[in-house]
Design goal:
Elements lengths: L5 H21 L4 H7 L4 H4 L1 H24 L1 H21 L3 H12 L4 H12 L2 H32 L4 H20 L13 H24 L4 H23 L7 H4 L2 H29 L12 H24 L6 H21 L4 H29 L5 H28 L10 H23 L9 H11 L2 H4 L3
Length: 478
């Protein structure tokens, strides 16, 4: 067997990234069970998701950059080990505090996404890079949705700790395969890691995402939310200043200003707002009792089955997107995916009277996610120099997560502001929320239209790419 076969490399990368993506959503439907089993409060158990989100946001661009510098395989294996350790600690967690710490450790593996994209770019023949990235994006998207489908059967047959024991078993094999069969990167960036910039990046991301994710509990006008948002603005400004003068920038601002990068990132922010909010709130919508006037009284497993059309459509769209790249370029796929997301959210807002209506809307949204996920990654990878792939795709994933946090927070505010007499959310909150998410997806489609058509690099673009990877002392000459 060829140890460095692109197909074998892809299989190992897909397995690792797929497990991480699965863990993003696998625990979500089981949070009420975790709350009961660990004898904790609802506000405390939400930190199981918040801690994971914050950790991934901090480590994804930093480890993406380290992978560009010291080797993507080495960093990939380290991220997989962190994921395994985090799952082991979570499976054994005796209380909510230990479980939250475990989720922080798991979040380190968010770097698997940019590292995998970078390895595909390094190792695949040029003609197969786009399809490889599309297929990987499809695996990530499907894994993220599949967690909501599998959580019910796993918890029903075993208990919630097996949501982590099963990944421990699988990851043990993946780590060995990655060490043996994933080749080390031939392309390396120059310089080192600007640790001050890394601390500032971590600071403003936490200061932004923490109040946004907790705003529903703390209140949008609370001192904690407003104070942290102000801190985020200040730290972001300082980070921009530090990055602009650093000899070894973590996220090179020249790369981020490339037209294909900033337009794709804008679309990612807006589409992420719709995508993550649908994932977070659609299961709760269908699990609401029929007495509310809109829910179907589904259990965790039933809600997961209603999400199955979305998962299947994600996979089909993601795989086909790569194969049709020549006739259906990434820009067109991103625009179409965002438009399908807008249509799906509009359907959820206006036609949700039966499980079939929800299943159809979920399938349409799945098609949109599959196309958008693959195309965003492809647009970023092909727009930046090879030595910046990890950092740039990591930041794209982060921007999508930031959008998701904002979308989920706004959706939560709408849903919780309209309550029935028994304290359950009213239908009005959901319909207004889904309408807002449709607007986000529509705005993402307009942003996608601004992405420049891909063509051979012009001298200006080539100069920008060269400057983006050159040390600060050389940039003035460029």
């Amino acid at each position: 067997m060829n140890r460095h076969s692109p197909r074998l490399t892809f299989g190992v990368l897909a397995a690792g990234a797929g497990v991480y993506a699965l863990l993003q959503s696998l625990i979500t439907p089981a949070l009420p069970i975790v709350q009961r089993e660990l004898h904790t409060s609802q506000s405390a158990v939400t930190w199981v998701m918040t801690a994971y989100l914050l950790s991934a946001s901090v480590f994804t661009p930093i480890l993406g950059r380290i992978g560009d510098l010291v080797g993507k395989k080495r960093t990939l294996v380290g991220a997989l080990v962190a994921l395994l350790v985090g799952c082991l600690v979570a499976a054994l967690a005796p209380n909510i505090t230990v479980l939250i710490v475990a989720r922080v450790i798991q979040g380190i593996a968010g770097a698997l996404f940019p590292l995998s994209f970078g390895i595909i770019r390094d190792e695949f023949p040029p003609g197969r890079v786009s399809s490889g990235i599309s297929n990987m994006s499809a695996v990530i998207a499907v894994g993220s949705g599949l967690g909501m489908v599998l959580a019910g059967p796993i918890v029903g047959a075993l208990d919630y700790s097996w949501l982590f024991w099963l990944p421990v078993i699988v990851l043990s094999g993946i780590i060995l395969l990655a060490h043996r069969y994933v080749p080390e990167s031939p392309t390396r960036g120059e310089g080192g890691v600007d640790w001050l910039s890394s601390v500032l990046l971590s600071g403003w991301l936490v200061a932004l995402l923490l109040p946004v994710s907790q705003a529903a509990h703390w209140g949008w006008g609370s001192a904690k939310v407003l104070g942290l948002l102000a801190v985020a603005v200040v730290l972001f400004a300082v980070w921009l200043f530090q990055e602009s003068r650093s000899r070894n920038p973590l996220i090179d601002l020249r790369v981020m200003r490339l037209p294909a990068v900033w337009t794709t990132n804008t679309a990612a922010l807006l589409f992420g707002a719709g995508m993550y909010a649908v994932w977070a709130f659609l299961p709760g919508f269908v699990q609401a009792p029929s007495s509310t006037g809109y829910g179907f009284g589904a259990d965790v497993t039933g809600a997961g089955l209603l999400m199955l059309p979305m998962v299947a459509a994600m996979f089909v769209a993601g795989v086909l997107g790569g194969r049709l790249a020549g006739r259906f370029p990434a820009k067109a796929q991103l625009t179409t995916g965002a438009l399908l997301g807008a249509v799906a959210c509009a359907l959820l807002a206006t036609r949700h009277g039966s499980p079939a209506d929800v299943a159809v809307a979920a399938a349409v949204f799945g098609l949109g996610i599959g196309l958008a996920f693959a195309s965003m990654s492809n647009l970023i990878v092909h727009a930046v120099p090879a030595a910046q792939t990890g950092a740039a795709t990591g930041m794209n994933a982060n921007i999508r997560t930031i959008g998701g946090s904002m979308g989920a927070a706004l959706m939560s505010s709408l849903v919780t502001s309209h309550l029935l007499a028994d304290g359950r959310p009213a239908e009005t909150g959901y319909t207004q929320g889904f309408a807002l998410l449709a607007a986000f997806c529509l705005a993402a489609a307009f942003a996608a239209l601004l992405v420049p058509a891909r063509r051979a690099a012009t001298p200006v673009v080539a100069a920008a790419a060269t400057a983006a990877t050159a040390p600060a002392a050389e940039r003035a000459e460029v």
